[in-house]
Amino acid sequence: MNTQKRVAAIHDISCVGRCSLTVALPILSAAGFDTSVLPTAILSTHTGGFEGFTYRDLTEDIKPISNHWQSLNIKFDALYSGFLGSFEQIDLVADLFDTFRNDNTLVMVDPVMADNGVLYSVYSPEMAMGMTKLCAKADIIVPNLTEAAFLLGEEYIGENYSKEYIETTLKKLSSLGAKKVVLSGVSFEKDQLGAAAFDSGTGKVSYAFNDKIEGYFHGTGDVFGSTLLSALLNEFPLEEAIQIAVDYTHECISLTHKAELEKRYGVCFERAIPYLIKQLGLS
């Protein structure tokens, strides 16, 4: 009997604004995967560019959902966590990893908690440090530069960094426990933006860049992470996977920019899905 890879995406739902599960679910599905979801919180909108949003913490639902999945003997090829709704969820998701992972399961943690040097409004410094426990259980982690600083307990240095700083940071992050680290939002030239990766198994550092489009675009971290996982599960090596993720994210931003769409609703990733399918060799 033929099988289809199954992913569990553990993220929040922002009812308006393209990020988290409203990005992860369609991208992973388009990439060919049976995608199950475990919502960590529900927000009326995402937290960037909108005021007065509602927020419902779903901590109490995680264990019952996990228990039911376990009773059904559901297997997952990948476990993918993002924004968590409370400090208690760190242990709950860590337990879920232990319960459902096997020798062939890819565990990816995107420690979604901060950007531009600042923690998100619903996060605390204690929760940020607690995220290191979850990262220790991952095969691959995908922080941005701000999240990397919080995970390492270091000061955020902004955009004034060298290649040596990036590579040292990658290796420090790997020492938290994950064998592979991808650092997003990396730039050494003003007109280029991309990501850096480190594989502790090979000791190799790799980079991927594309043209930088000026402006701040919400949800691009979730687009990048979901695309990266899609490429890895489609058997692309890490260095090729990060380039696919950078290129697709750029394509989404480019389409949004050209259409002059309101940025606070996130990038127009839907119109770029055919591009992603082609990049993954699925068309």
TrEMBL record:
GO terms for biological process: pyridoxal 5'-phosphate salvage. Residues 73-264 form the Pyridoxamine kinase/Phosphomethylpyrimidine kinase domain. Keywords: ATP-binding, Kinase, Nucleotide-binding, Transferase. The keyword Transcription does not apply. One of its GO terms (molecular function) is pyridoxal kinase activity. It comes from the Bacteria. Signal peptide: none annotated. Its EC number is 2.7.1.35. GO terms for cellular component: cytosol. InterPro entries: PM/HMP-P_kinase-1, PyrdxlKinase, Ribokinase-like. CDD domains: pyridoxal_pyridoxamine_kinase. This is pyridoxal kinase. It comes from Desulfosporosinus youngiae DSM 17734.
